[in-house]
Amino acid sequence: GLSVNQAARGKSFDESEPYGDTNKNSNRANSVAKIKVVVRKRPLNKKEMAKKEEDIITIEPNSNALTVQETKLKVDLTEYVEKHEFVFDAVLGERVSNDEVYAE
């Protein structure tokens, strides 16, 4: 079957299919304020740059998803990259100002 990420990819939480019978709560749900989750990628800090750490976050242009590329070790100590995708209502780059974040 589909994973949760595959089922909701490209949609905000509010656009996902409802779970269970929500008809009895629909009036209440419509009157409750919606929560919007917006994330902003931060640049590497001086300490991270001094340690030559890598930027492991990728944001696709015009997308509401980001990918974390986590380097891991196999049992035989060979490295591999495990990718994790996260979907939000909005994903902003590291050059975006605070005003632009709150405008979202």
TrEMBL record:
Family matches, as Gene3D superfamilies: Kinesin motor domain
- Which Enzyme Commission number(s) are listed? 3.6.1.3
Q: Does the keyword Membrane apply?
A: no
Q: Where is the Kinesin motor domain?
A: 34-104
One GO molecular-function annotation for this sequence? microtubule binding
Q: What class of enzyme is it?
A: hydrolase
Region (Disordered) location:
1-31
Specify whether Secreted is a keyword of the entry.
no
Source species, domain of life: Eukaryota
Instruction: Please report which protein family the annotation says this sequence is part of.
Output: Belongs to the TRAFAC class myosin-kinesin ATPase superfamily. Kinesin family.
Which protein, by its recorded name, is this?
A: Adenosinetriphosphatase
